[in-house]
Design goal:
The chain is α/β, with parallel strands linked by helices. It folds into two domains: about 220 residues, Rossmann fold (3-Layer(aba) Sandwich), CATH 3.40.50.300; about 35 residues. About 45% of the residues lie in helices and about 10% in strands. The protein has twelve helices and seven strands. The protein is globular, with a radius of gyration of 21 Å. The two termini are about 35 Å apart. The chain binds guanosine-5'-diphosphate (GDP) and magnesium ion.
Length: about 325
């Protein structure tokens, strides 16, 4: 199918076109330099999703992007399901991007669309997609913003991004999201001490999930003591939930709304989206730069330079200059 048709169909919210475009993003991430058809699609979407198009002045994406992060097993997928229901009750069109390989959404990119989300499988206003973090172009940092553009073009009002529960991705989601939800749960180690370094700092909203378990109250108190001394205009609220029973959905939604209002009023939304746009451009530029070495035999060139550096025949700066000199 040609890109023009895919783009038009995606903008009509046709799930197959949305799925195919996200597959295009995923596959292009494995190709040095990306994919020309994807470039065409992104060009079409970038102008269509700007203020005044679908966004109505809401910024580069019309959709609100909400990131959910936290350790594996904390309840991110379950909470995502709870939020889908809550936003659907409000009549919102919801996109979900699950980038957690251990997520029940995942298990093969296409399969993941269906697993465990049967409830929403026939809902034309819910798009669920998992993404694998394969690829040479910085993986998800390269692919996720483009997948967001596809979902936005499909008219999603809200996009929930469930992150990989491990490694740097756990913190990196904050650079993609308007609002970052950090989930914690009791019995997951030693409370907030066990939380990955840096993750508490990126929270706009805290969720203490599994509030049906012992230790939830203590965890809330511990968090409150951590958050209390925080200065700045936004102090992250702490919401208790039992996601598996849908309890706390209203409180969570209220906290998310409050943060959205804060983002709007403070100008922080614009600041975050500018930072996101910068990241997006830089990531693509660096990937394209890297790809330009490839035809020249970058690997061979690098091997050669590495040998010389090891043999003390050059210094790393000169070697880097020589590598850059092979660029056209
Ligand atoms: N008791 C209890 N179990 C929960 C709750 N939320 C999720 N779970 C369970 O915890 C496990 C991990 O949840 P999941 O959403 O897959 O976590 P993720 O790895 O963060 O996505 C699943 O078995 C869920 O059913 C909760 O609020 N209470
Ligand atoms: Mg999960």
């Amino acid at each position: 199918m040609d890109v023009g048709t895919l783009v038009a169909d995606a903008r009509r919210g046709r799930p197959r076109a949305v799925a195919r475009l996200i597959t295009l993003v995923e596959n292009a991430a494995a190709v040095p330099g990306g994919d020309e058809r994807l470039r065409e699609a992104m060009a079409a979407f970038a102008t269509a999703t700007g203020p005044g198009a679908s966004g109505g002045g809401r910024g580069p994406y019309g959709a609100r992007v909400i990131g959910l992060t936290g350790s594996p097993g904390v309840g991110k997928s379950t909470s995502t399901g709870m939020l889908i229901r809550a936003f659907r009750k409000r009549g919102r069109r919801v996109g979900v991007l699950a980038v957690d390989p251990s997520s029940p959404f995942t298990g093969g990119a296409l399969l993941g669309d269906r697993v465990r989300m049967q409830e929403h499988a026939t809902d034309p206003d819910v798009f669920i997609r998992s993404m694998a973090s394969r690829g040479h172009l910085g993986g998800l940092a390269w692919a996720t913003p483009q997948a967001l553009r596809v979902l936005d073009a499909a008219g999603c009002d809200v996009i929930l991004v469930e992150t990989v529960g491990v490694g740097q991705a756990e913190v990196d989601v904050a650079r993609l999201a308007d609002t970052t939800v950090v989930l914690l749960a009791p019995r997951m180690g030693d409370g907030i001490q066990a939380a990955k370094a840096g993750i508490l700092e990126v929270a706009d909203v805290f969720v203490v999930n599994k509030a049906d378990h012992d230790g939830a109250q203590a965890l809330v108190r511990e968090l409150r003591n951590t958050v209390a001394p925080l200065r700045g205009p936004w102090r992250p609220p702490i919401v208790s939930t039992v996601a598996s029973r849908g309890e706390g959905a209203d409180d969570l939604l209220a906290a998310l709304d409050k943060h959205t209002a804060y983002l709007d009023e403070s100008g922080e939304l614009r600041r975050r989206r500018l930072a996101r746009a910068r990241d997006e451009i830089e990531t693509i530029a660096l990937a394209r730069l890297r790809a330009r070495f490839a035809p020249e035999g970058r690997e061979r060139r690098l091997d050669f330079l590495a040998e010389r550096l090891l043999a003390a025949e050059t210094d790393p700066y000169t070697a880097a200059d020589e590598l850059l000199a092979t660029l056209g």
